């Protein structure tokens, strides 16, 4: 983990370590009988971080295994993508973010059953260069909902967002605005 609380694919370790590194207390809703499933879901996030940092620069293909494409519904920074349309969305947009460093902060994984779970966190892309040569960086909030099908965890829903500064109706792609400041009209 970096000194500022961000993890990458080399520093994400255990569920217990993610709890220790939250900026707030871990939820009391974690169920001990589902700890193994939470560990499995964490492995998916470790794999995603590795894919983003080590494989996406060459191709977005390795990222496909993380999604149940026919079932995915997303609300993300580009808008809404309905069930059945996510594959095209993935193909159109994910390569844009491929030349950056991916990190996670405040990751909290929840298993809600042996085959369903979710995770909440911040993710950021830093030091990025888009296909058009423009530099970019962004930090966003994300919730992922997962299902375990045929022994494999995959995302079936993601909600990605930036806070909005209500007085200007502009999003904050750094996620640095405080809620009490953002809500001033």
Automatic annotation (TrEMBL):
<protein>
    <recommendedName>
        <fullName>SnoaL-like domain-containing protein</fullName>
    </recommendedName>
</protein>
<feature type="domain" description="SnoaL-like">
    <location>
        <begin position="79"/>
        <end position="163"/>
    </location>
</feature>
<dbReference type="InterPro" id="IPR037401">
    <property type="entry name" value="SnoaL-like"/>
</dbReference>
<dbReference type="Pfam" id="PF13474">
    <property type="entry name" value="SnoaL_3"/>
</dbReference>
<dbReference type="InterPro" id="IPR032710">
    <property type="entry name" value="NTF2-like_dom_sf"/>
</dbReference>
């Amino acid at each position: 983990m970096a000194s500022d609380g961000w993890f990458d694919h080399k520093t994400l370790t255990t569920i217990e370590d993610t709890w220790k590194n939250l900026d707030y207390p871990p939820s009391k809703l974690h169920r001990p009988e589902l700890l193994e499933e939470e560990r499995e879901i964490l492995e998916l996030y470790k794999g995603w971080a590795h894919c983003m940092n080590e494989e996406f620069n060459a191709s977005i293909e390795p990222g496909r295994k993380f999604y149940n494409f026919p079932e995915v519904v997303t609300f993300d920074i580009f808008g809404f993508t309905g069930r059945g349309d996510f594959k095209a969305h993935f193909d159109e947009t994910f390569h844009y973010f491929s030349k950056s460093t991916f990190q996670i902060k405040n990751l909290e994984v929840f298993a809600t059953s042996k085959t369903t779970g979710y995770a909440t966190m911040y993710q950021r892309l830093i030091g990025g260069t888009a296909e058009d040569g423009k530099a970019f960086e962004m930090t966003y909030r994300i919730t992922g909902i997962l299902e375990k099908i045929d022994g494999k965890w995959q995302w079936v829903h993601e909600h990605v967002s930036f806070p909005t500064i209500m007085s200007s109706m502009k999003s904050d792609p750094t996620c640095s605005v405080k809620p009490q400041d953002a809500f001033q009209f």
